[in-house]
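Dear Dr. V.,

Thank you for agreeing to look over these. As mentioned in my earlier message, I'm a first-year student in the group and I'm still getting used to reading structure tokens, so any feedback on how I've presented them would be very welcome. I ran two proteins. I've put each sequence directly above its structure. The first is here:
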Amino acid sequence: MKIHDQYRVPIDKLKKVCNAEELKFCNSTLDAIAGQERAVKSMEFGIAMEDDGYHIFVVGPSGTGKSEYTNDVVNRAAALRPVPDDWCYIYNFSNKDKPLAVSLPAGKGRIFQKDMDKLILELKNVIRKKF
């Protein structure tokens, strides 16, 4: 036996399998970004605003996790609130510079859009045949 063989570690001992209990210390919801307590408080304040006209602006160096953090916070807040209505902007034939804003129940905006696309296609075919 060579001298270094006594220090050799068998391959099966080189692998560590972790179970979920061992990882409880890991906070995957990104409740805070290390060293950015003020930014976290600002985000919490901004998300809690109920009035219209407020926005949250997040800025910082690339690769710091700000997008992941922002998406996580916004998604968690949105999950606690009712689904908002869809808003559709419709061409205003009376004033082309002021489209009409129409509120539809959540999910109905996409259906309306598809119905309008279908209607336009049908109208093109009918008009083409008539002329």
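The second protein is here, in the same arrangement:
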Amino acid sequence: MADAPHTIHVDVVSAEESIFSGEARFVALPGEAGELGIFPRHTPLITRVKPGSVRIEKADGSEEFVFVAGGILEVQPNRVIVLSDTAIRGRDLDEEKANEAKAAAEEALKNAKNEIDIAKAQSELAVMAAQIAALRKYRQAK
């Protein structure tokens, strides 16, 4: 259990696995209405998360970065839960693969025949751009 005044328990979970579980001093992530910063004893809330980087300042002062392709955030005074279909540890991000996927999404957008294809390609493009930005943020922090 988290030491209430100083840390908050954080879980970042993808559809496949638990990506991070541990105590943190602070969590920052891209909420639907803008960047969110969460300290221990934060007011409860539930919101959607946009694609981007979750930055976790761990109890020992080190940082962990996780890329999420969107999802749901639940905050309780002593717990933060981020649920995402896709979540990748910062150290596991592959810039070459992300750039290839971004190029494929750009090509799909050019060749889109209807509104559904356009929306799908735009969504994929936004996720890949966010993943590349998260990778750059992770590299700067190292």
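From my reading of the second output: The longest helix spans residues 115-141. The CA atoms of residues 65 and 90 lie 5 Å apart. Does that match how you would interpret it?

Kind regards,
E.
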